[in-house]
Write a structure and sequence with these properties.
The chain contains 6 helices and 7 strands; from the N terminus they run βαβααβαβββαβα. By secondary structure, it is an alpha/beta fold. It has one domain: Rossmann fold, CATH 3.40.50. The chain has a 5-stranded parallel β-sheet with strand order 2-1-3-6-7, with helices on both faces. It has a two-stranded antiparallel ribbon with strand order 4-5. Helix 1 (about 15-30) packs parallel to helix 6. Bound molecules: flavin mononucleotide. Flavin mononucleotide binds next to helix 1.
Length: about 200
């Protein structure tokens, strides 16, 4: 059975608009056919932690040469990166924080972007190792227009996902929720209703 990895990156829970919309899209994806759902709630996940020197050195040291403390330091990243590599579909719920992604999502990205697991170097150039994946990315902003010069979320996530081999990406862009939140939610939910989620 296929696996959907849902990634929440707002520290807010009930009040979170990105979670609310991701719930709706998750329901649609589940209705499309049986799928196993895994969750990473980035601000509440013990594995999503800023690294230390052993971790960074461990990332670039062949396993047979790693020290015990390097092995310990990269354990969480190994789990997260392999889980990401093994999923078939992704559902990202992404608030814009200060024109970019939240710190939780940036930390997670640094933990899953791993040479040998999600990308590799071929003749010195990086090549994404993930194939035949589909990503849904819900981005919510308070006032910043998406795809504007101030939006460092959409291009960053597009480049990052492409870099690791995820090229089939559906962005659901929910901008300017602070002006009229009801209208923004109604529009986003309508968009989710008609989204092509066929597998
Ligand atoms: C720390 C912080 C920084 C934010 N930075 C921006 C920003 O740069 N541009 C913007 O339009 N909205 C910004 N917002 C508003 C959030 O994007 C908006 O409230 C969004 O709904 C948050 O996602 P959530 O509802 O899932 O928690 C910021 C909110 C917080 C808490």
């Amino acid at each position: 059975m296929k696996t959907l990895l849902r990634i929440d990156s707002s520290p807010r829970k009930d009040a979170s608009l990105s979670r609310q919309l991701a719930n709706k899209l998750q329901t649609r994806l589940e209705k499309e056919g049986p799928i196993v759902v895994q969750n990473r709630d980035l601000y509440y996940d013990e594995l999503v932690k800023l690294g230390n020197e052993d971790q960074i050195n461990g990332f670039f040291t062949p396993i047979e040469n790693q020290t015990d403390s390097q092995k310990t330091a990269i354990k969480g990243s190994n789990i997260l990166a392999n889980e990401f590599a093994n999923a078939d579909e992704y559902l990202f719920a992404v608030p814009m924080y200060n024109f970019g992604v939240s710190a939780g999502l940036k930390t997670y990205i640094d933990l899953i972007s791993r040479a040998g697991i999600t990308f590799n170097y071929a003749d010195g150039s990086p090549v994404g190792l993930l194939k035949n994946k589909k990503a849904y990315v819900i981005i919510v902003t308070g006032g910043t227009p998406l795809e504007s010069d101030y939006d460092f979320v959409t291009p960053y996530l597009r480049v990052l996902l492409n870099f690791i081999g995820v090229t089939d990406i559906e962005f659901i862009k929910v901008a300017s929720t602070s002006t009229n939140v009801e209208k923004a939610l109604i529009n986003a939910k309508s968009e989710i209703e008609v989204l092509d989620v066929s597998r």
